[in-house]
């Protein structure tokens, strides 16, 4: 079965082309500015052409969203392209995971579902480095143990730049030293090592609370920056959320 999986986030829309359970191709579009369904249709078709995807060969389209106002327009655009209705999944979609909250976002639920499928043994923590930084924890039975939501790295960086007169835009990369001597390296150190300290602190506190050394997965746009800097993160997988959406929608 060939599927297109779409994760509609607050910052980006990520697409994945799945051949059975393998995601062979993925790409990202910016969520803003909001576009009409006709504009979205044209943009999606351009991406399909770029990646040599024939819409007629797609068996299923699966959508998960945390942006309700975009879900309708994207659904309409997809229906026009494929001539079929996409499957919409959310926290109410049945799986082996117990969300335990009517407020849980689709992305967090998908992260838990993906971890439950891919790493069935023991307790897991999934860090999603997205618009918000989230940490969700699940045990081997599929029970959700809890979630943490903190300000996202890029969100915080943009706020810092916007609200100060003399701080420039920077690339989020590891600085050469912790203590910087110019504005850019000082900001890079604060954003990289500051948030790394937060993540490591969360891991330690969660492990203490659940009385186990959890397996830690990192996903989201800037997860690749933090994974090499700590042994506390075991796997970095940018497609982790997409995989969860695929598992939720494949049998619907």
From TrEMBL:
Q: Tell me which cofactor or cofactors this protein depends on.
A: K(+); NH4(+)
Primary localisation category:
cytoplasm
Identify the keywords attached in UniProt to this record, alphabetized. ATP-binding, Coenzyme A biosynthesis, Cytoplasm, Kinase, Metal-binding, Nucleotide-binding, Potassium, Transferase
Task: Name the pathway.
Answer: Cofactor biosynthesis; coenzyme A biosynthesis; CoA from (R)-pantothenate: step 1/5
Q: What is the cofactor note?
A: A monovalent cation. Ammonium or potassium.
Presence of keyword ATP-binding: yes
UniProt: substrate binding residues: 105-108, 183
Which first-to-last residue range defines the signal peptide? none
State a single Gene Ontology molecular function. Answer: pantothenate kinase activity
Task: Give the EC number(s) listed in the UniProt record.
Answer: 2.7.1.33
- Enzyme class, top EC level, equals transferase
InterPro entries associated with the record: ATPase_NBD (IPR043129), Type_III_PanK (IPR004619)
Q: What role is this protein assigned? A: Catalyzes the phosphorylation of pantothenate (Pan), the first step in CoA biosynthesis.
Q: State the oligomer form and interacting partners.
A: Homodimer.
Q: Which PANTHER family match?
A: TYPE III PANTOTHENATE KINASE (PTHR34265)
Please give the family membership noted in the entry.
Answer: Belongs to the type III pantothenate kinase family.
Q: What is this protein called?
A: Type III pantothenate kinase
Species for this entry: Kaistella yananensis
- Print the organism lineage: Bacteria, Pseudomonadati, Bacteroidota, Flavobacteriia, Flavobacteriales
């Amino acid at each position: 079965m060939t599927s297109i999986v779409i994760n509609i986030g607050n910052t980006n829309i990520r697409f994945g082309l799945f051949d059975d359970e393998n995601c062979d191709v993925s790409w990202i579009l910016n969520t803003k500015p909001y576009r009409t369904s006709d504009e979205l249709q044209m943009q999606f078709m351009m991406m399909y052409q770029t990646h040599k995807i024939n819409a007629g060969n797609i068996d299923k389209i699966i959508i998960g969203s945390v942006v309700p106002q975009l879900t309708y327009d994207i659904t309409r655009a997809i229906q026009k392209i494929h001539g079929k209705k996409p499957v919409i999944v959310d926290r109410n979609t049945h799986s082996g995971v117990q969300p335990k909250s009517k407020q849980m976002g689709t992305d967090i639920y998908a992260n838990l579902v993906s971890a439950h499928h891919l790493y069935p043994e023991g307790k897991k923590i999934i860090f999603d480095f997205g618009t918000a930084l989230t940490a969700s924890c699940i045990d081997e039975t599929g029970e959700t143990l809890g979630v943490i939501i903190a300000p996202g790295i890029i969100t915080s960086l943009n706020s810092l730049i916007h609200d100060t007169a003399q701080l420039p835009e920077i690339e989020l990369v590891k600085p050469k030293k912790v203590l910087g001597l110019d504005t850019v390296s000082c900001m890079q150190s604060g954003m990289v090592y500051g948030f790394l300290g937060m993540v490591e602190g969360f891991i330690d506190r969660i492990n203490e609370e659940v009385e186990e050394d959890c397996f830690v997965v990192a996903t989201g746009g800037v997860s690749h920056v933090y994974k090499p800097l700590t042994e506390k993160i075991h796997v970095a997988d940018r497609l982790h959320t997409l995989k969860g959406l695929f598992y939720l929608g494949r049998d619907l």
